[in-house]
Write a structure and sequence with these properties.
single chain, 306 residues, alpha/beta, 4-stranded mixed β-sheet, 9 helices, 34% helix, globular
Length: 306
């Protein structure tokens, strides 16, 4: 196996509405659906659909959502042997509101994801020696993420962290364990404690993260693409033009595209192109996992203008 994802598995409960409600306001929605999600699961599906051998370590509850979530991951040929069925708590749930402009708000109820502990890390340790990449997000306890990253570094496994949702106090000890960090603009602002409102501030934020010990910083900028920086190189990477209808899962697609390209031996700059393409294409369809593009589609778009 080439990629292992250690992270969250949720059932997304999605409400579509003409506009997002203001505090105290009730709005009439236009559609409702339940779809498999969770940043960890989304990234696993993204890499699997892009042709990577993918293993997942995490938790679901022993409820009907948990059964459905496991079944979905297995449909995408993801190895679910590292997923524990927690009998003490419900599966994770995300309550998502999507307005007509494709912007969204999300409330995550961790459920079983919040119970992840040392026993889950121990299951992860069994597969890390066979792994090239470890994908992490912040929808599971930070202590488990730190321990997982340390174990990966001991084995020379590349660690990619999507710092979402970004905590108020990100542990500084985690930065040197990260090979690639991929915050979006809002998450980067929380990490560096100042606004990113122009190119100069974006570059400044990347440098702050590099100085904390991260090897590669990639700041996701939505429809504007991304900004990439190391100690010796930096550049803006444009996205492709699409008609967005739903931005849910776009960031997970971005991470999956990067990991899949690197797993295939492509350069990081080529991987960035894969990431921006995968993220953009995901916004053209509803939902998260069903909207994630496959390998042939990303390869087709990546050849344009290359």
């Amino acid at each position: 196996m080439s990629i292992v994802v250690f992270g969250s598995i949720n059932m997304d409960m999605i409400a579509q509405t003409p506009n997002l409600p203001q505090p105290g306001e009730t709005v009439i929605g236009s559609n409702f659906m339940t779809l498999p999600g969770g940043k960890g699961a989304n990234q696993a599906v993204a890499t699997a659909k892009l042709g990577c051998s993918t293993y997942f370590v995490g938790r679901v509850g022993s409820d009907s959502f948990g059964k459905d979530l496991l079944r979905t991951l297995e449909t995408f040929k993801i190895n679910t042997g590292g997923i524990f069925i927690d009998p003490k708590i419900s599966s994770g749930v995300a309550m998502i509101s999507v307005e007509k402009s494709a912007e969204n708000t999300i409330i995550v109820i961790p459920g079983a994801n919040g119970n992840i502990d040392e026993s889950d890390v121990n299951r992860l340790k069994l597969v890390l020696p066979k792994t090239s990449f470890l994908l992490l997000q912040l929808e599971i306890p930070l202590i488990a993420i730190e321990t997982a990253a340390r174990e990966a570094k001991k084995l020379g496994v590349t660690v990619m962290l999507d710092p979402a949702p970004a905590p108020d106090n990100f542990p500084n000890c985690l930065y040197p364990l990260i090979d690639i960090i991929t915050p979006n603009r809002t998450e980067a602002e929380k990490l560096v404690k100042f606004p990113l409102n122009n190119d100069h501030s974006i570059k400044k934020a990347a440098n702050v993260l590099l100085n904390q010990g991260v090897k590669n910083v990639i700041i996701k900028l939505g429809e504007k693409g991304a900004f990439y920086a190391t100690q010796t190189d930096q550049c803006f990477v444009p996205s492709i033009t699409v008609k967005a209808i739903d931005t849910v899962g776009a960031g997970d697609a971005f991470n999956g595209g990067i990991a899949a390209a690197l797993d295939r031996g492509l350069s990081l700059k080529k991987a960035l192109k894969w990431g921006t393409i995968a993220g953009a294409l995901t916004t053209t369809k509803e939902g998260a996992q069903a909207a994630l593009p496959d390998l042939a589609t990303v390869q087709q778009f990546s050849e344009v203008g290359s």
